[in-house]
Amino acid sequence: MMPACIQGRKGRLATLACAALLASSPLAAQEFAPDHHAGARALVDELADEGIARGWLESAMQQARYRQEVLDAMSGAAERRLRWDEYRAIFLDAERIHGGVAFLEAHADAFARAEAEHGVPEEIIAAILGVETRYGRITGSHRVIDSLATLAFHHPTRGDFFRRELGAFLEIAHEQEVPADEPLGSYAGAMGYPQFIPTSYRAYAVDFDDDGLRDLWSNPVDAIGSVANYFAEHGWRPGAPVVHTAEGPATPPESIDFNRAARPPATRAGALRDAGIAVPEAVDDAHRLLPVAVEEGEGNWRYRLGEHNFYVITRYNHSHLYAMAVVELAEAIAAASELDANWLQAVDADDEEARP
Fold it and tell me: I need a surface site. Which of 17, 75, 194, 228 has the fewest CB within 10 A?
């Protein structure tokens, strides 16, 4: 039945008033309750068939709320609207660099073990956590169940994807005995220190401190091991290069397909040289690279040539800007750590000389 507030009313103000009334109504409060929502009911049936208690699932979905701001945020991601210099400035500030040094020092044993077991440099792991959440300080303010339910049942093109993520989240919450309405995350449903989406949480999270729980929400050691495991599972090559800087024409040549960062390196170095890109001399003409051209200021282009490990970083986030930010933050953290180490050595040496 049509709500009484709508019957016989016209105009924008009347529509807004009705929307506000509906948002506070019992029906709106049960937006995704299985009794009222066919999609939620089908998801509950599916997960119940897999062994999760139906009553728990129904109670969890009754807590979910529609959030328009989640859909709005999905259309405005920084990777889609910023130049490289603007994007870089977000992630390469002094606070984030020195925070990375401090985080490495605070969890030195976990980083050393993660690098030894998986071959992923500690500064790359730290940079991922720095870019994603400032080392666990900012992990998101959206209730995960709200974000995922909204996207699962209201996103215009990716509903099936987010429905799988919602199902995986409910499995995680049930398995770890976490109330489904409590975890917070990003507007896209990413969670914890590394901002894993739920399917990645299930597939790649590890119990790195052996306490019997894969906890990415509050355990930095598990987060460190899980990021390293994610990269290893996606084909990280220990000791191999990540990316090369390069010089090139004032305008990216049309013969080269730039910025296909979500795909493996496929462009021959020889073809890049023919197009005027200065590939490092040590790279053979037949070697395949992933060319990236980014605008830094109006009309000022910079070039990067990604190796396989650069592609692996884009498996975490498909944006070439994201991968470049991770690489440059990792380099900055490593350089700052080296400076700190040299400073401490100098202080120790001075202390030694000053002793009687």
Answer: 75
Q: What is the predicted pLDDT for the residue at 1?
A: 34
Give pTM, 2 decimals. Answer: 0.86
Cα(28)–Cα(80) distance, rounded to whole angstroms? 33
> Which residues, 6 or more positions from 174, have their beta carbon under 8 angstroms from its beta carbon?
52, 53, 56, 57, 180
Cα-trace Rg, the chain? 24
For 242, left (φ over 0), alpha (ψ -120 to 50), or beta? alpha
Write the pLDDT tens digit of every residue in 229-246: 999 999 999 999 999 999
Catalytic option among 31, 115, 132, 165: 132
Asked whether the predicted pLDDT for residue 272 surpasses 90, the reply is yes
Residue 112 three-state SS: helix
Distance CA 342, CA 325 (A): 26
Structure confidence at residue 14 (pLDDT): 42
pLDDT 10s digits, 330-350: 999 999 998 866 654 554 555
161-180 pLDDT per residue, tens: 999 999 999 999 999 999 99
Catalytic, 117? Answer no
Instruction: Name the helix (H) or strand (E) containing 301.
Output: strand 301-306
Q: Are 303 and 291 in contact (CB under 8 A)?
A: yes
Q: Is the dihedral of CA 293, 297, 299, 300 positive or negative?
A: negative
239 φ, ψ (degrees, to nearest 5): 80, -10
